[in-house]
Amino acid sequence: MKQRVLPVQRVWTEEQLEMIAAIKEVGELIQERPRRTVYRRYALEHGWHQPEVIIRQFGSWAEALSAAGYEWNIDLQRESLEKAPKYTKEEILKSFERYAQDVGSTITLKKYQEWRKTVHHAPSHYHIVKMFGSWHDACTAAGLEASVTYSKAELAASLRQAIEEVGFSLSFEAYREWAKRNNKPSTKALLHRYGSWSAAIHAIESEIRSQQVHA
Known about the structure:
By secondary structure, this protein is mainly alpha-helical. It folds into three domains: 10-82; 85-146; 152-214. 66% of the residues lie in helices and 2% in strands.
């Protein structure tokens, strides 16, 4: 039986593996196959490879998605885009209100995604972040407590330690590798607390520089 042979039979380079990991991470965040425009937004925020670079490596965005384990059907993709819902801030806040009634006032992304599967027309993480700028800001606007595993002080201490050991202008990927080696809070925990990687780095580096000046 004739089968389609994809590049997954090759041995991926370290750079390609990083690209695949980034695509998978975006997919996990938005709970669906990442479109190129959606991926670009997260890539800019986290300092990942841009879609054009990925396409040069894999030949097309479809092949990159396949390498990351996503099936691709262009007709279904077009249909999905045409039917993609649009949400206003008011509609998103009403969705959060309904979540609070069903689940409670403490919210995590995982709990929200599980709840979203049980209701109709609830906005995705992507739509929420696109409208409010960050998950944490959206939860705050809705009057919900965005629960995280670590306190802000613990996250700040971890990021500070990483900066002191690795250096200033710490990249998203560099911290992720450092955190894995040292069993520290994940990048997701930091993003949930600070809203974006750049905001987290700016906050901690500003504190370090301020203390150095007054030392």
